[in-house]
Amino acid sequence: MSLSLDEVRHIAKLARLELAAGDAEATQAKLNGIFGLIEEMQAVDTDGVEPMSHPQELAQRLRDDAVSETDRRAAFQAVAPQTEAGLYLVPKVIE
Amino acid sequence: MIESSLKDIAAALRDKKVSAVELATESLSRIEAGNARINAFVTVDRDGALATAKAADERLAAGTAGPLTGIPLAHKDVFCTEGVLTTCGSKMLSNFVSPYDAHVVSLLKAAGAVMVGKTNMDEFAMGSSNENSHFGPTRNPWNTDKVPGGSSGGSAAAVAARMVPIATGTDTGGSIRQPASLCGITGIKPTYGRVSRYGMIAYASSLDQGGAFGYSAEDCALLLSAMAGHDPRDSTSLEQGAEDFGRDLAKPLAGLRVGLPKEFFAEGMSDDVRATVDAAIAEYRKLGATTVEVSLPNARLAIPAYYVIAPAEASSNLSRFDGVRYGHRAADYGDLNDMYCKSRAEGFGSEVKRRILVGTYVLSHGYYDAYYIKAQKLRRLIANDFAAAFQQCDLIAGPVSPTVAFGIGEKSDDPVQMYLSDIYTIAVNLAGLPGLSHPAGFGAGGLPVGLQLIGNYFGEARLLNAAHQYQQHTDWHTRVPAGL
User: Fold this and answer.
1) CATH fold group of domain B1-484
2) pLDDT (tens digit per residue) in B196-236
3) Fewer Cβ within 10 Å of end Cβ, chain B: N or C?
4) Which of B117, B135, B93 is nearest to B32 (CA)?
5) Is the backbone peptide bond immediately before B216 cis, with ω within 30 degrees of 0?
6) How many angstroms separate the CA of residue B322 from the nearest CA in chain A?
7) Nearest to residue B222, comparing CAs of B415, B67, B100?
């Protein structure tokens, strides 16, 4: 399997990564090297094998729906690139 | 004093032969003297360390000290530390002063350990050489032209250079065991779920696991015992209380059954590594262990499966870096989408971007079953292989890395070659088993070689017992790089 340049540009778009015009070819070559490695797994018959996501097969725990954290908005917003009046600022989305 | 065992340092603190402030000062001056050469630390917290050390001295005087009170340590820069820069080796977080502590950091603070700084690492823990750090590569203290391994290379190099006696690390595909091997120290990754991932910046959540570096298995046991335990804030944390992983250190090894996976010894290992690994296994036999050949037929699929699962999870985890709530934001952008795309393109390095792209592709519509689900099925087969092997043996031994430390720049342009250097470590993460690397001798160029021990689930105490007994009868773990 190998990715076309258009596919590389498409996944970069999906991943919200700007791809500089001159970088697409180099990225494509390296990604195709990685997919060459990954393809080895298609040769194995895994019919009937149950996928494994956690070694101990734990179910996700649920907690009570109760307030457990204190308000630390100021501390958390102190590391944000741009805030105002307790809000995160981003470019205008709705005209 | 920093070069002594934790037991000896703790005794000296107790007997007032040294103070925690003096120890912290010694560690800080060693970092100051060596860091320009090794680049093991991204951040040195002198003021914080001296204040914590002073508090530790008060605890020692009050008689409320524990085994780690007053011991200098370093945290891999993947662990969030309140009020201290936490970069994860990335430009994306190069200005991120964490507003909270990781669970591991809180536990070690409570134990009275003295954090002197944060160690360099491959960006977002993606790498096997520490060359993927935004802050420049860490260098191997045994030969500064060589890599220290990765991704916890800064922690491993800091301990190897005797800047700190212990350090934390994380291991997603070998990131504790491989740098421990390449730097000639001991490192352990526990069973998945032992150490809380709360505040440990996520790479591949189903594989990431915190662990410990030290000069010896005995020291690692002390550090790991203080790091592990149930944390409700990590949904995959095991519901098990704290444990003394050093409880079995003194047990003799007579009757221990050591499994040798025939696939690990078939090919791929360089001659110097093979000779060292063989000699270490012979030493285990001398100590009373018996060896048995076991088979891990699906282990060869660990690398392809890993390079689907880890990037898939990474692409999802790293979507949080959007230039809005924390981290890098591009200086110039148009609309919101352009801000995301530019901030992420500028903030992430090339290996991180590659893994995000691979992950985005394998999770995209129409490919999920063919890649992610397929890889999770292989993961089951790999775990089943280990389960079958552990019917015949108590622990598994083999190489950590196919070669000694390679040269800086040697593999940095070829991701696939870099990935293959983790051939012996990755299967352990996929299965979620505990694994350890301890110094076993030296190979080409006088560079360290580690032996990997793999345990069954919850078998950390047994792994540390075996490594400790080996270290009681050998002195590889006491060797230090020249010029220290």
Assistant:
1) Amidase signature (AS) enzymes (3.90.1300)
2) 999 999 999 999 999 999 999 999 999 999 999 999 999 99
3) C
4) B117
5) no
6) 9
7) B67
Confidence of residue A58 (pLDDT cuts 50, 70, 90): confident
Residue pointed to by tokens 């592990």: B228
CATH number given to A5-43: 1.10.20
Tell me how far apart the alpha carbons of residues B174 and B425 are, in angstroms, rounded to a whole number. Answer: 5
Residues B401 and B181: beta-carbon distance below 8 Å: yes
- As for the ipTM of the complex, it is 0.95
SS3 for B60? helix
Tell me: the pLDDT tens digits for B283-338? 999 999 999 999 999 999 999 999 999 999 999 999 999 999 999 999 999 999 99
Amino acid at B428: V
Chain B residues with CB-CB distance to A76 below 8 A: 99, 325
CB pairs under 8 A between A and B: 167
Q: How far is CA B17 from CA A21, B11, B49, B219, in A?
A: 63, 9, 20, 20
CA distance B256 to chain A (A): 25
The DSSP letter of residue B369 is I
Q: Sort out which chain B residues have CB atoms less than 8 A from A44's CB and list them.
A: 298, 301, 378, 381
B421 is catalytic: no
What was the pLDDT predicted at B484?
75
Q: How many Cβ atoms are within 10 Å of B32's Cβ, its own excluded?
A: 13
Using alpha carbons, select from B1, B412, B419, B392 the residue that is nearest to residue B175: B419
Q: Which residue of A lies nearest to B379 if distances are taken between CA atoms?
A: A52
Polymer length of chain A: 95
Annotated active-site residue B19? The verdict is: no
- Is B357's CB within 8 Å of A8's CB? yes
Cβ contact (<8 Å) for A3 and B361?
yes
Residues 19-38 of A with CB under 8 A from B: 19-20, 27, 30-31, 33-38
Is A68 touching B (CB cutoff 8 A)? no
- The single residue listed with the structure tokens 């350090």 is B167
